[in-house]
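Note to self: user wants both folds in one dump. Writing first protein now.
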Amino acid sequence: MQISSVGGMGLLDSLLGADGRKSFKRKDSDAGEAGKALEELRGSLYNELRTSEGAKRQQQRFCGPVVAMTFNFFVAVGIILTNKLVMGRVGFNFPIFLTLLHYAVSWLLLAIFKTLSWLPVSPPAKTTPSSSIFLLGAIMAFASGLANTSLKYNSVGFYQMAKIAVTPTIVLAEFVLFRKTISFKKVLALGAVSAGVAVATVTDLQFNAFGACIALAWIVPSAINKILWSSLQQQANWTALALMWKTTPITIFFLLALMPWLDPPGVLLFKWDISNSCAILSSALLGFLLQWSGALALGATSATSHVVLGQFKTCVILVGGYILLDSDPGLVSLSGAVFALAGMSVYTSLNLKESKDGSNKQIPVQTPVSKTKTSENGSEDSTVIKTTNDV
């Protein structure tokens, strides 16, 4: 057997020759180098996701403003239709408990992500005070719970009218908290958006005293909630999923406290059959996607832009229903929607221009400076590259 093996190897060597043996060795070497490079890339990506700064860079790389806003837009439209089904046809008239189910499912999914090591790392505890996390979780409970309660007791038009007040509230709060100002052109664009949405929804202003109080109480928590989400992600290296993981248990606690005050009794007597449970579970899954996409949008843009996106959604649904579904909201409402869309376009273009100008200021500009250099053999002209930074 040993002679046969030696003879086989000799036959293989004679057939391949020296070049063939070198080719096999080179292929083995190339495969080894490729595998080593792949392993190094995998290790570097893993290490990148194991730090809060790296995870934030990956979020910004794969989910920019356009992707985040588009994701949030489609999820928001989907959850509106699903919640309309749950509140209307299914008859689940418990808005706080429905919000609680949304956050409970979100927390369960985040726990699974953490078990599978898919959850991005949070920044060090010393960089973000625990009071900020607690405040955000509490305000989120009031913002989400009061929003669904307002939708229950008020018409969609009155809900949108209340949402208009969120925009100036955000501008004022950002000025008080962060001394942040906006340009006069943006003020005019936001004014056009608010006026257009007001005209578009003025024909649907049905409400009662309790619903109006809920809507007014929702404005301030909604504004502060958006500001905190945007601020923590942009200034403290938080990713959307990591911040959701920290705040969701606090939100669930406060929603449990709100249930006896705002929800009617009888949630345990509801008909929990397969059809109704699947509809409510679908709403809860979309609630997780809505919270995630909203957090991504707030991290990629700003609180004001996120509110404008919500108003854009209302106008698109109104105009789209008229074009595609033959609905007739009236000439006044359509004119207001078109006017609001024009204002949103101007506001978006101003944002893009400011973002482009800000990025240009961060890029070093290389300017050639002619300089004469003298050597031992004589003088010769050379070009020296001078790097300057725009401030």
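First done. Writing the second protein, which came from a different request thread.
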Amino acid sequence: MSSMAEKKDVDNDKPITRVLFCGPHFPASQIYTREYLEKYPFIQVDDVPLKQVPDHIGNYDLCVSKNMRFDSNVLSRAKQMKLIMQFGVGLEGIDIDAAKKHGIKVARIPGDATGNAASCAEMAIYLMLGLLRKQNEMQISVKQKMLGEPIGETLLGKTVFIMGFGNIGIDLAKRLKPFDVKIIATKRSWPSNSVVLNSKDFPTQNGVVDDLVDEKGSHGDIYEFASKADIVVCCLSMNKETVGIVNKPFISSMKKGALLVNIARGGLLDYEAVVQHLESGHLGGLGVDVAWKEPFDPNDPVLKFKNVILTPHVAGVTEHSYRSMAKVVGDVALQLHAGKPLKGIELVN
């Protein structure tokens, strides 16, 4: 059910700024934002079921999209909408050009400023360790009162390929270094003066930590890098160029027995290719926080494999990151209400 409230005209001379959260998933996003704004009666925060969003969107000034799809038809109904933003970074569900046409700004919350990137990096390591130490098989051993089984693996000495070296990739590399791994990474473009250093001080050039990466490559190097890695971690943004990028040719290029981890977007992985390579044993394990279709089907056959770990899109869902992002949304709502410049977000149009 929607928690959409009746119009709360606290002061007839002061209009209310209305904030819309789309759908029931990731409920802490609207709960924490509502809590942050509770002392500001002129800001109203509602959450509306996904199917009802098109019918109600015309009443709102600010929208937090979550997993709602915004095409031109929906956007055309947003008559008083000034800004659509994500509770995080992913904007693939929003037709940004159509939003611009309708005079609506679109923005994301930078992950490095809220702890979201750090939370996602930690989840990637959780999934890596869970696969290496055979988490599912350990639970079986506990139930069967077995000791000393299964025999797991260690991160020590592994080569980790970070595909997409943005904020999450950088935070992941920082956290992986103490595990004594080799880090290779690809990125659309690296700063021209970027060099690999041996210093342990993590110096920065052009905002990118340099000495975290042992070998750097571009998008054209992903197959070569996949062939070198013991673990591949997807940290890419999803767009028309990256949808299904982890496909049959890519997985075939990975080492036999290598692990695949995805904490970015489910659509980066070709589902059939992943299942096929799990079946054949070529793929040594799969750890995903995001799925091809969400919410994930608990009866999906991919879960029959012992070497698959699935978490319910919670990589960025931590108390710290969600409180921080709720503050950003709340502050933006206050700025919007006051007619001030919008700060703390990254506008993309």
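Dump finished. Worth passing along: Residues 319-338 form the longest helix (20 residues).
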